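Input chain follows. Return C-alpha cells only.
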Amino acid sequence: MEFRPDPLKFNKVVSQEGTAISSYGDGGFRIGEQRSKGSILITPGGYYPWDAVEASSITLDSLKRIMDQRQEIDILLIGTGDKMVFLNKALRASLEEATIAVDAMATGAAARTYNILLAEGRKVAAALIAVD
C-alpha cells in the first residue's frame, strides 16, 4: 500500500532524523519506510506534499511552510528536478532576507546533500521536485 501524506497538515516526526530520505525517483520519495508520490517539502517538524512540478513554479508563497519555520532552519536545499536550475533573484533575495541560506541543485544532489547535512545535525529543510 502506498502512503500519501495528508496535504493539509504536516506529517510530524519525533526527531528530524525521521525525515531522512531513503530513496527518490519514480515520481516520488521514500522518507524512512513511507513512500510519498510527487514533490515534497521537508522541514525539521515533518514533511508533506508540495505542488511544484518545475523550477519556474517555485515561489515564496509555495515555500510558506518553510518560511513559517524559518527560526528552525539554517539552510534550505531546493531540488529543481532532473537538472540544476537557478532560482530567480527575487525569490533568492526574499529567502536570504529571512536569514535562510538557500542552495538550488538537481533533485538527486539535493536529496543526498540533505541526508549528509541532517546526519551532521544541521538545521536543514528541503523543497524537492519529484523526478522519474
